[in-house]
Every structure is written in C-alpha cells, then in structure tokens.
Amino acid sequence: MTHHPSPLVLVVEDEPNLSEVLEAYLRREGFRTERAANGESALRLFRAAKPDLILLDVMLPKVDGFEVLRQVRGAGNTPVIMVTARVEDIDRLVGLRMGADDYVVKPFNPPEVIERVKAVLRRTRPTDAEGSLKVAGLEIDPRGMEVTVAGRPLELTLSEYRLLEHLARHPGHVFSRAELLAACLPDSDALERTVDAHVNSVRRKLAAAGVTDALDTVRGAGYRLMDRAAG
Q1: HSE of 228 in the Cβ direction (CA atoms, 13 Å)?
Q2: Which residues lie below 8 Å from residue 181, measured CB to CB, with a gap of 6+?
Q3: What is the CB neighbour count within 10 angstroms for residue 94?
Q4: Distances (CA, A) of 226 to 57, 112, 136
Q5: pLDDT tens across 143-172, in order?
C-alpha cells in the first residue's frame, strides 16, 4: 500500500503567538507545518517546501499577503486561505478576483480554521475514481485538476476549477449562485458575489483560449455551461 505523507500547511503569520497556536492545532490534527513570519520568507518556503495549502495573513512585513498570493497564483494552483482583520481586505479579495480559495477573519477560533483547511483540501483533492470530462471544447481531468483547450492548459485557480468542473458535469443545467456556493465552496462563508467574480474570471480565461460562448449567464437565475459543440 502506497504511503501518502500528511498534507503540509505553510502558516504565514507575523504574530508569533498566533502562528504557534495554529501550528499546534494543525499538528494535533495530523498536518505537517512550516512557518513564515513575513512575505519574503513565505515565498522562499513556498518554492522550497511546495506546501499543500497556505494559511496567509494579509498584513505582513516586507511583502504583504496580497503580493504573496499574486506570486503563488502565478506559479500554480496551491490552495490559499487568507487571514484578515479588516472587512476592506475581503472586499479587495473579491473585487480584484485574486483567487484565494477561502478567507477567515480575525479574531477566530483555531478549530474553525482547521475545519476550513480540511474543507479546502477535500475540495481540492479529487478521488481516483473520477474520470475525465469532455464538454464545450474543454477536456477536464479531475484527478490532475487540469483543464485543457485544444491540448493547451487553462490556468485556473482552485475555486475557478471547482466551479467549472461542477458546471461541466451538468451541461445545460442552470445553477443559482447559492447552489454553486453550496456545491463548490460548501464550508466557506463567502458571499454570492464571490461566485460572480469567479465566473467572470473563468469566462475571460475561456475567451482568451478561444471558447467564447460556452459559459452563459441566465438573467435572474444563475449560470450554465452549454456544450454547443455537441449541438
């Protein structure tokens, strides 16, 4: 039987007491951890340790959390949970479509954060039984969490991927924003407008890849993915 190491969580937090508490809770739940106290060391550890998930504080010395998130997203789809003490940061995350998979607001209960970590990892680790999908000119590989168009990979955040995969499994079906939140971000307290931001970002990326008419907005109802190539 193949042994899979427990997930590695990179805790990026400049308050030592808080990072120690988070690490202790994570390790008690069986996670491996690394810790960074500023944005520069966070990026170094991200590249060296290749964590399975990053808990990323927004307010950091040297390089702030938004810039760390931008560089992490430029390098791939590592799940990121943002930690913030300000509502304005949440608005910025949504407004700039920066691709965080979830966020938590200080002050928080550490056990709640651990549950968020588990939930994001559940969403982002598909089972081996899931087969590939071909719809609307897209080829979706759930095992590798990859989407290709004409053989070329589509660079998506994990939340974007989950939304697109869910729509692709039910072509032509209209899903409301609430339904998409429940299906793709079930343990998040994200707002429905977050779905709009993710869908708009996916639509732009699809258009850039030459898929311009697959992702529909159904006014007053929600969104659907149309397999026009099959029609």
Answers
A1: 8
A2: 188, 190, 192, 194, 195
A3: 18
A4: 38, 37, 6
A5: 778 899 988 888 988 888 888 988 888 888
pLDDT 10s digits, 191-210: 777 888 889 999 999 999 99
How many residues are listed for the chain in this entry? 231
Contact (CB, 8 A) for 80 and 69? yes
Strand, helix or coil for residue 222: strand
Q: How far apart are CA 89 and CA 93, in angstroms?
A: 6
Nearest-angstrom CA–CA distance, 136 and 127: 23
Q: Could you tell me the sign of the dihedral formed by the alpha carbons of 45, 46, 47, 53, in that order? A: positive
For residue 116, the Cα-to-chain-centroid distance in whole angstroms is 12
- Which of the four CATH numbers 1.10.10.10, 3.30.1660.10, 1.10.287.110, 3.40.50.2300 does domain 133-225 have? 1.10.10.10
* CATH for the stretch 8-124: 3.40.50.2300
Q: Which residues make Cβ contacts (< 8 Å) with residue 145, sequence separation at least 6? A: 77, 124, 126, 158, 161
Strand, helix or coil for residue 190: coil
Q: What is the DSSP letter of 125?
A: S
Q: Are 138 and 212 in contact (CB under 8 A)?
A: no
Domain boundaries, the chain: 8-124, 133-225
- Residue listed under structure tokens 């998506």: 156
Residue 123 Cα to chain centre, angstroms: 9
- Confidence (pTM): 0.58
